[in-house]
């Protein structure tokens, strides 16, 4: 199986509710290793750039407002099939549809405030990692 990297955001709602540690625990229990991490409070421009693919959608303004409403944690996760493994433990975009035991089922309130983000493909992961981290901020695991 391929060792991949994926990009994660713990969104403002989950940070505000003190769920950072609980969500990190889900990553590590699933075998995903944190190889970079930091806390940020996004500017409007950073949030718009990150979610540019959704700029024509009706929810874009609310999404940007939410993502700039408080601090977030950004992480790079490394592991076997990391992109899909991470999406699996995140659960569906709408927490009402998320499988029991997933991060969004357990920590999210609504589709608008859904606790966490995960890259949807290896290509978007590479782009999203580069959006927030320089190469020298990544610490690949050797053991
Ligand atoms: P994310 O990018 O945050 O990991 O979420 P996702 O892939 O599961 O969903 P995506 O389609 O990329 O949507 C990005 C975020 O926009 C909000 N959204 N709201 N009201 C709506 O119909 C709607 N659809 C999407 C969600 O907060 C979603 O996480
Ligand atoms: Mg997405």
UniProtKB/TrEMBL annotation:
Keyword DNA repair on entry: no
Assigned keywords, A-Z: ATP-binding, Cytoplasm, Kinase, Magnesium, Metal-binding, Nucleotide metabolism, Nucleotide-binding, Phosphoprotein, Transferase
Protein's name according to its UniProt entry: Nucleoside diphosphate kinase
Active site: 117 (pros-phosphohistidine intermediate)
Species the sequence originates in: Shewanella salipaludis
Binding-site residues for ATP, renumbered to this chain: 11, 59, 87, 93, 104, 114
Top enzyme class: transferase
Cofactors named for this entry: Mg(2+)
EC number per UniProt: 2.7.4.6
A molecular function (GO) term: ATP binding
């Amino acid at each position: 199986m391929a060792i991949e990297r994926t990009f994660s955001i713990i969104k403002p709602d989950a940070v505000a509710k003190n769920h950072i540690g609980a969500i990190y625990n889900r990553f590590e229990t699933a075998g995903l290793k944190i190889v970079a991490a930091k806390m940020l409070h996004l500017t409007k421009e950073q949030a718009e750039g990150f979610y540019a693919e959704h700029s024509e959608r009706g929810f874009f303004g609310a999404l940007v407002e939410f993502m700039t409403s408080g601090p977030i944690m950004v992480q790079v996760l490394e592991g076997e099939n990391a992109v899909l493994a991470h999406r699996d433990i995140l659960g569906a975009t709408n927490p009402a549809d998320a499988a029991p035991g997933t991060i969004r089922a357990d920590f999210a309130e609504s589709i608008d405030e859904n606790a966490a983000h995960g890259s949807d493909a290896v290509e978007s992961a590479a782009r999203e990692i580069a959006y927030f981290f320089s190469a020298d901020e990544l610490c690949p695991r050797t053991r």
